[in-house]
Amino acid sequence: MKLYEGNMYWPTTKKSIKYDSLNTDIDKDIAIIGAGMSGILCGYELAKRGHEVVLVEAEEIAKGSSSANTGLLQYSSDKMLYEFIDEIGKENAVLFYRMCHEAMKDLKTLSERLPERGDFVTRKSLYLASKIEDITKLKKEYKALLENDFPVEYIDSKALETDYGIKGTEALLTKEDAEVNPYKFILEISKEAVRLGLDIFENSKVLDIDKSDDCFIIKTKDGSIKAEKLVYATGYKASNYSEIKDGEINRTYALATEPISGDSWKDRCLIWETARPYFYARMTEDNRIILGGEDEEKDSITNSEEKLQKNTLKLLEKLTNLFPHIETKIEYSWNAVFGESDDGIPFIGQDTDDKDVYYCLGFGGNGTVYSMAGSKIIADLIEGKSNKYAHIVSLDRQG
């Protein structure tokens, strides 16, 4: 399954790190398959806790869907808190949002431990009502967030126009969100994880997995791994979707502009909206604007240059409508596939049939945040510890 197509921006910002391919037989406590954001975070967390861990990647580290990720990190989900409360009850809904908020803090702490922070910068997020009718939704969400102590402000139309130059609507302003260069971030975490004892092998496609005598034998072309526990962090490229209920794959579009010379918008905050699919925007370290959206219910990428150009021009037009003073051109554009679950919650936890198999699949628009939370949940489960969030994201969750 090809995960993206187009002219990618993030891989141009940092030289790749090369890891050896597996060409011998090794014995470890835990094997992780997949070296994107989920796999690297799981590997880092488990190595930090003192486990003997190996991570294998079929291609190159950070070159899967993570390099197509636009790097907006938010504690808010694509589904509003008040909607989750209606669907799964207040206790679990608030716990899920707390999980994401805690993961945001953990990502910040992790970035501060890295010699280079992967362009991680704490930001506020501006959540715009896409139409007048959606203002009611925003007010309900503001009430739900405020009552449960999440950092949020309500921005009325007058303040939105005065402070941000955006006319004719209202917004929520959430705090303690962030932006990141996902490609740089993964590479920097990988170096720290290796320092902690993680073994990483790339260009080592898993060809076969057998289990006998309570251990796995994972075979690649030139080597094998013996491990007691197995973690799938294969993202949207997972070959065993039969184990995952209610998941679907969709297509999205993104672009990076040329660096702009003038001002962008107040506080360089992250911007998104209540429409579904939604448009979103952020700045980069080198003063480009990243835009994304125009999602489609298609389970594969498009190779059509015409379609890519048409959809990314729509994104640029939406930016111009918001901020007429910004004049810029598209320099990079791509489309990618991403996974979503029917209930808006990622798939993280123990296999329903095999207690030694775990999944960290960050389905949804908040994948990096889910992966950070997932790395701690999986580490706790492997160690036999309780985790207050595990039941919400488990594969056999009810709802």
Care to describe what's here?
This is Glycine/D-amino acid oxidase. Residues 29-381 form the FAD dependent oxidoreductase domain. One of its GO terms (cellular component) is cytoplasm. Helix 2 (81-88) packs across helix 3. The chain folds into two domains: 4-69 and 183-245 and 344-393, 3-Layer(bba) Sandwich (FAD/NAD(P)-binding domain), CATH 3.50.50.60; 122-178 and 247-341, D-Amino Acid Oxidase, Chain A, domain 2 (2-Layer Sandwich). The chain is α/β, with parallel strands linked by helices. It is globular, with a radius of gyration of 21 Å. Strands 2, 3, 8, 9, 10, 11, 17 and 18 form an eight-stranded mixed beta sheet that branches. Strands 1-16-12-15-14 form a five-stranded antiparallel beta sheet, with helices on one face. Helices cover 29% and strands 28% of the residues.
The total domain count is 2
Which topology of the largest domain does CATH recognise? FAD/NAD(P)-binding domain
Rg is 21 Å
What percentage of the residues does DSSP assign to strands (E)? 25-35%
Q: Could you name the CATH class of the largest domain?
A: Alpha Beta
- Structural class assignment: alpha/beta
CATH architecture descriptor text of the largest domain: 3-Layer(bba) Sandwich
- Please outline the major beta sheet: 8 strands, mixed
Q: By CATH's scheme, which homologous superfamily of the largest domain applies?
A: FAD/NAD(P)-binding domain
Query: How many strands appear in the DSSP assignment?
Result: 18
Average pLDDT works out at 95
Number of helices: 9
Give unreliable regions as ranges. none
* Termini Cα gap: 30 Å
Order of SSEs: EEHEEHHEHEHEHEEEEEEEEHEEEHH
What level of helicity do the residues show?
A: 25-40%
Shape: globular
Pfam families: DAO
Domain FAD dependent oxidoreductase: 29-381
Protein name: Glycine/D-amino acid oxidase
